[in-house]
Amino acid sequence: MDYKIKVKALREIMPIPMAEALKLLKENDGDIKLCADIFKTKSIEYICLETDCSKEMALEFYEKEKFDLNRTISFIREELFDQNYKPIHNITLENLNKTRSWIAIVQEKDFATSLDYNELASVIQTLAAIPSLREIAMVLKQAKKIKDSIFKGYSDNLSIDEFVRRNVKLDDDPDFQKAYHRISLSTTIIIDEINRHRRNLS
Questions:
Q1: Burial of 176 by CB count in 10 Å (0-12 exposed, 13-18 middle, 19+ buried)?
Q2: DSSP classification of residue 36
Q3: pTM for this structure?
């Protein structure tokens, strides 16, 4: 039996990893349709397990996304989030937009500068109200506290050397470094979560 041709034919129907396609074909006497059905059934079960959706919904989105497993799971999660969305106290479109503006400062300038954002208190309150972002809110609050402590008593009348000295002290602070790395690694997560709430409040 020429498994090479059958593997190619099977993978044209379903995006099955090559090793798994070969294994399925060997276990099922080279029956391409049967192998495709087995893989599809297995994928549907996995999607249901990962998203807690119905088999009907899993099948609909799986076929719609042309059997791309990761895209299917992602789109179903977003669909279920929207279907089951319940407004959270203190989460308003205005505050979500302020949070998005703060993220823009982090991305376009730097984290330390973003701590001077005049709506930072609203940002922290908004992040703290969203369960998946509460820890990030605590990190942000701590970073703000560290910067305020280091820059206490500072004014623009002081020398540039003093400004540099305080910034170096801030950059060298171990807890600030941890906060910086945590926020830097979490920007995409924050944006995605904020956008989910924004579209449901628009």
A1: buried
A2: H
A3: 0.77
> Tell me, what amino acid is at 198?
R
Residue 40 per-residue DSSP state: H
Amino acid at 28: N
Concatenate the DSSP letters of all residues of 176-198 into one string: HHHHHHHHHHHHHHHHHHHHHHH
Q: What is the mean pLDDT of the chain?
A: 95
| Average pLDDT rounded to a whole number, residues 100-129 | 96
Euclidean distance between CA atoms 202 and 196, whole angstroms? 10
User: pLDDT per residue over 136-162, tens digit each?
Assistant: 999 999 999 999 999 999 888 889 999
- Using alpha carbons, select from 195, 199, 143 the residue that is nearest to residue 173: 143
Task: Please state the three-class secondary structure of 100-145 as a single string.
Answer: HHHHHHHHHCCHHHHCCCCCHHHHHHHHHHCHHHHHHHHHHHHHHH
3-state class (DSSP) for residue 155 = coil
Average pLDDT for 47-57: 97
CB 3 within 8 A of CB 25: yes
Extract the tokens encoding 41.
């059934």
Contacts of 30 (CB under 8 A, 6+ apart): 1, 3, 6
How far is 62 from 65, CA to CA, in rounded Å? 5
Measured at the CA of 161, the angle between CA 156 and CA 164, to 5 degrees, comes to 85
Residue 3: pLDDT band by 50, 70, 90 thresholds?
confident
